[in-house]
From TrEMBL:
It comes from Streptomyces pristinaespiralis (strain ATCC 25486 / DSM 40338 / CBS 914.69 / JCM 4507 / KCC S-0507 / NBRC 13074 / NRRL 2958 / 5647). This is Transcriptional regulator. SUPFAM superfamilies: Homeodomain-like, Tetracyclin repressor-like, C-terminal domain. The keyword Secreted does not apply. Signal peptide: none annotated. Residues 1-20 are annotated as: Disordered. GO terms for molecular function: DNA-binding transcription factor activity; transcription cis-regulatory region binding. Pfam families: TetR_C_11, TetR_N. Residues 8-20 have a biased composition (Low complexity). Residues 41-60 bind DNA. It comes from the Bacteria.
Amino acid sequence: MTESGSAPGTLRPGGRTARTRAAVRDAVLTGLGEHGYPGLTVEYVAEHSGVHKTTLYRRWGGIEGLLADTLDLAGEDDWSPPDTGSLEGDLRALAREAADSFTDPGQAAAPTAIIAAAFQSRRAADALHAFYAERFSRCERVVHRAVERGEAPAGTDAGAVVRAVSAPLYFRLFITREPIDPALADQSATAVLAAVRAGAFASARAAGRPVMSG
């Protein structure tokens, strides 16, 4: 723990410390892309970030702490979900962005390695969960806008909708190890859109259906 009581690498200071944190983040991502999680070492991060390894151990505790802070820092960006003017366009854009992030050779190595790390490290898994929970929370606004425009039923579960868009893509990528492409991303968005319009994601109470009890 640091003097403030926070876990190593969890502070969000500015100035030189923020630059150091960003340099370490960049080195971690580069190392993940080149060597994957099993091959990433503190020595590698030290060499490529310019931060001495004793400092890395003191502030982050090791590779797990470095990876967790990399995800934490990624969640502090200013990314916003698409706003195309329609639910169909927004869902399609979200699906394509998810697909691109794991199929573009220039982008895919690091996030793929982070996913793999979550199966080997509990701390990495917790950090990944927090990252995606925050990301999906931002994406919910596309569904809220759709409800306001009358494109989706009142009571539509925004969180379930945005997760459903990327779920088939991630299943193929990490479970069945099948290729994905823009056409598959569009198919996923179209299927979710149809389910939204049919009320599949709306609560029974909001949709006016009788609520079954035990």
